[in-house]
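Can't paste images in this forum, so I'm doing it all in text. The chain is below; anyone willing to post the predicted structure tokens underneath?
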Amino acid sequence: MNIRTKSVIAALIFGGSISTASASAVITDITASGSGLGSFSFLASSIDDKGLDFSKVFDGVNPITLTFTVAHSVGNGGSYNIIESITNNTSTVFSDFHLSIAQPTNIPGNGVVFTSFNSSTLGGFTLDSPSVNQPSPFNSSGPRDLNFTGTLAVGETANASFSLKPFDPGTGNTYTFTITQTPTVSPVPEPETYAMLLAGLGLMGTMVRRRNMKHNV
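Text version of the structure:
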């Protein structure tokens, strides 16, 4: 599934150009795709020329990828401030949540990064520190990866916030980068595990009954 939001953000291209005459990278389009996607929309902030509000619904426990188109402009060269609502419309509780940036090769400077990444938040979750090893294919938290541990119940919505800085492609140029968002869930025990658990409970019950019988003799 691929969803293109019709919201217009072209005004961002010229945002801040009066007060700041510096080269700037500007996001001109955002699309969403992935088998986990239920719906996606975004709005540009009316008071912050670098503010974006996202709304995303997961209909499946599979990744959703946001693709950003970036162009050159003259204006506010700072980071984008993103607020996002994430809804779990699946039948499974989310126990972890991952965001990962993929960018073009041979990029200049620092490339596309989560600025001040350790200040990123997701309601009901804790941001894992860079020292926490992540299971494949995820990298540890850092400028291009955010890993959260927590709980998002079925039918519930969590609000995320993070800052994002793309690089300026230069006059007349554009490029795309992606942020893939992946929920993970706690593993469901196999039927054999349930059988062993029930057998263990039965054994404990038998031992308790025998102990009580000895005490009553």
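Residues 5-20 have pLDDT under 50 and may be disordered. DSSP finds one helix and 13 strands in the chain.
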